Amino acid sequence: MFGWEFPPHISGGLGTACFGLTKGLMKHDVEVLFVVPKAYGDENQEAVRLINASDISIDFKDSKYEEYWRRITYMEIGSNLIPYVGPEEFKRMIEASEMEALSGEDAILSKNFEFSGKYGADLMDEVKRYALVASAVAATNDFDVIHAHDWLTYSAGIAAKSVSGKPLVVHMHATEFDRSGENVNQNVYDIERHGMEVADRVMAVSNLTRNIVIEKYGINPDKVFTVYNAVEPSDKPNLQYPRSVREKVVTFLGRVTFQKGPDYFVEAARKVLDKDSNVRFVMAGSGDMLNKIIKRIAELKMGERFHFAGFLKGDDVDRMFGLSDVFVMPSVSEPFGIVPLEAMRSNVPVVISKQSGVAEILVHALKVDFWDVDALADSIYGLLHYEGLSKMFKQYGKVEVDNLKWENAAIKVKEVYESVL
């Protein structure tokens, strides 16, 4: 299995999903070798054997590595390809990298290469080296199936398949259409399509994503399977966190980017405050739209009722949910969306957009079109003011989410593996 991150070192939902899935697979007797660019030593390896790509030295004088390198072809990337980084931030990072005059191919082919494992300016150098390391891993380990998570590892998956001849399964957690809307970068699109064309099976995290894969990438429907994400059951007691404010709290937790719809959250907040000023709104996350959002909040004169928590993970996420009365995910395009499940697990009622994969499976959630700010505001107001409604969604939502287990998702993943063996 090739991934770019693994808890506790994560930048979003991808690493969380990888961790949950590997734990689920372990319960069904699937042994996983999980390759990451950079391991820190404190990762939870109860369900995987972690392989640190930074530990693998490559002697390019060895003819086999030269052969691997010849098999790996790449395109130059010049777009907002980095997940969790928007176009403006990407441009700034690329300009910085040009000023630093990165050594490029010489560094990639050096005997020892230290991966940062992050989504930085030299990301494409790391992706190339990672694919080369994948060739070495595939040549020196015994396995049955290759599983590559998201675009960053598709090249690695293809390289491993080329070396070993073993079947490749690629996981589509988010498409370029989700990240960029209709302003799709052709290079990015081509990389994603090539990975899915070479793969023996494609797993999509929702029917929404499956339809995009089939209709917009032209992938054969017979090899595209929907496997919904799940959520880890909470092993923590429902702690009562002391509140320093008397008002109700409404939370947005996610990347502050176009895809996540933070601007619709802000406009709905203004409408709610017009009806009830005793509400506080929290935006937890970071992203390229943050400055724009701050400016808009100033224009709407909501500064006293709007708070920014920055990027949260681990216990801080649990604490944020513990202080929240309503969670909102107004995503413009969300392949799945694990965060609402985490909120419901913490007894927080949720409002989600109909344009999310998780809306396909959740019953006890209020669902609105992301663009319908009035409906979004009505839903938030209703959950804040009608106790019976809020109580029902808390009670039944918790039960519903507790039944969405990774071990059940893992059964479907294992069936996909078996279909190619």
Structure overview:
- With 421 residues, the chain is of the alpha/beta class.
- The protein has 2 domains: 13-230 and 408-420, Glycogen Phosphorylase B (Rossmann fold), CATH 3.40.50; 248-402, Rossmann fold (3-Layer(aba) Sandwich), CATH 3.40.50.
- The chain has 16 helices and 12 strands.
- The strands form 3 sheets. It has a 6-stranded parallel beta sheet, with helices on both faces. Strands 3-4-5-6 form a 4-stranded parallel beta sheet, with helices on both faces. Strands 1-2 form a two-stranded parallel ribbon.
- The radius of gyration is 22 Å and the shape is elongated.
- Mean pLDDT is 86; it is low at 73-90 and 97-103.
Helix and strand arrangement:
Elements: H1 13-26, E1 33-36, E2 49-52, H2 63-71, H3 87-99, H4 105-108, H5 123-140, E3 146-149, H6 154-164, E4 168-172, H7 176-180, H8 186-198, E5 201-204, H9 207-217, E6 224-226, E7 248-253, H10 262-275, E8 279-284, H11 290-299, E9 306-308, H12 315-322, E10 326-329, H13 339-345, E11 350-353, E12 366-368, H14 373-385, H15 387-402, H16 406-420
Parallel strand pairs: 1-2, 3-4, 4-5, 5-6, 7-8, 7-10, 8-9, 10-11, 11-12
Helix pairs in contact: 1-16, 5-6, 6-8, 10-14, 13-15
